[in-house]
Amino acid sequence: MAAETSPLAFVTGATGMIGSHLARRLLDEGWRVRALARPTSDTALLESWGVEIVQGDVGDSTETLKPCLAGVDCVFHCAAMVSDWAPLAEMVRVNVDGTRHLAEAALADGQLKRFVYLSSMVVLGMHPQRDFDESAPLIHTGDNYNLTKIRAEEIVQQFIRDRGLPAVILRPPYVYGPRDRQFLPRVLANVKNGKFKFVGSGRQPVSLVYVGNLVEALWLGATQPNVVGETFLITDGQAITRTRLLEVLCEEAGYALPTTHVPTWLVRMSCPVFELIHSLRPGSEPPLVNKFRLKFMSTPLTYRIDKARRTLGYTPKVDTETGLRQTVAWMRQNRPDLMPGK
To answer: What is the mean pLDDT of the chain?
Structure first.
């Protein structure tokens, strides 16, 4: 396909794990890729692939973003401020206002064919979630990330209804894979320094999604017909217990499996105390124990992807244990600081 006739994708969050894998997939499919990146971001990898870099921030105004989206066929909005402790105002600026401004700018020249918004399972709340599907209600929990992702979804839905935005919403759970900077590196760091403890039995199941599987869903969200206006849950199609998750990570990295268990009730009672203490110290690091981390450590979180299989044509190609092993293999080469003896 000639370059001038190739579809042009605009990707936010392209310097992160998900966005970079998506950019590579789009290039491999023959698309042109334009990525929004802050001046301080490391764009060397993207530039080496031939990605067009435009400097900016998703929190910029609509008028500032319009030139960045000129001629764009498809927007993949993957950028977000993901935090369990960031100030609300900054999270609103990035996650809520940024989504609104991006949608407005994307519609400006009338060429947009698809807007794929990457949401999160965080919108479903903190309570146990067993085999949830797209019919599950959005639950406000009081934390800033949950609030801003719900508001962002509501904005996308409003633009679909009122402005004809050709949008698709994808909701992944915890995402892992090569170039992961947050999820599994934090787990391995805590294993290495002896701080990792199971909360409860460790047998509670959780659904995850490998970055390659999520990128497949993003691609389908942009290219499948008759999915505009739809929301899809995206996972690896299976669940894994916290104990098995740690077993696989430790086997691959060469660590002994942690054996300390802390009662769930004790951690739950401790959360308000730790959160209050840290809230009195502006700018402090997140508390070791808070509701967000308790959810990851102990809450059953499993989801059905029947709708994605049926309507989106999504089939996860990498199972969770294989994906975890591939991720640790990447870390062994690229994050030796997380490995034993380093």
So the answer is: 93
Statement: residue 186 has pLDDT above 70: yes
| Sign of the dihedral through C-alpha 177, 183, 185, 188 | negative
Domain enclosing residue 20, as ranges: 3-182+207-238+301-317
CA distance 180 to 178: 5
If pLDDT is split at 50, 70 and 90, which confidence band does 293 have? confident
269 domain residue, yes or no: no
327 falls within a domain: no
CATH number at residue 226: 3.40.50.720
pLDDT at 263: 87
Q: On the CB side of 48, how many CA atoms lie within 13 Å of its CA?
A: 6
Structural domain contains residue 248:
no
Write out the DSSP string of 16-45. SHHHHHHHHHHHHTT-EEEEEE-TTS--HH
Beta bridge partners of 11: 35, 76
189 domain residue, yes or no: no
Q: Could you tell me if 120 and 146 are in contact, meaning their C-beta atoms sit under 8 angstroms apart? A: no
